[in-house]
Structures are given as structure tokens and as C-alpha cells.
Amino acid sequence: MKVIYWFSTAIISAFLFLSSYSYLFSKSTIQGIRALGFPDFFRIELAVLKLIAAIVLLIPFAPLQLKEWSYAGVGLFLITALVAHIKHKDSIFIIILLLILMGILIISNIYMNKLLK
Does pTM top 0.70 for this prediction? Predict the structure, then answer.
């Protein structure tokens, strides 16, 4: 059970770290976010929040309520990204990737709660 939790949490956290980095430093990602209609301040805000969420999810002794807020925030981000990419008529690959990430996020949350029982 711990292996599934840590593996899924590591995948989500790695995605959040990489995504945050690209939101701040990748010219193509920055242009893509602008093309979706989001302002620069929102891009920077998302990058910072993703960093915080990744760190919180990886810290074993972080308070449960803080972890739950992190899961909720990441879930909201993924839903928002899904809607934005569908509206923008982006590649089906991006949509499938977002759905897979949502599934991994849900698995991580389920197994976190199973470990606490």
C-alpha cells in the first residue's frame, strides 16, 4: 500500500515540479499559457502554488488538512487545464495526459487515506 501511495505521489509531485519550472522558464510554455488566454500574473501564481503543493505532498509529516488542500488545489488546476485545452482545441494527447494525471492524483489521495486508517 505504501508503495502505491509513494509512487503515485512522486509522479504527481514530479509533474508539479516540472510544470512549475516550465511555467517560469520555458518560452514555449509561457506563450502557450498566453494563447490559452491567461495573464502572466496567473501563470506565476500557478507556478508558485504548484511548487508549494508538490512540497506539501512529499513531506510525510505535513498536516493532513494541508495535504487535503493541496490535493484539492491540484485537482482544481487539472480540471481548469482540461477545460482550457478542450476549449482551445489542443491535441488529444494533452487531454489524455491530464485525465491520466487526475487518475494518479485520485489514487495518491485514496492511498494516503488508507495509510492513515
Answer: yes
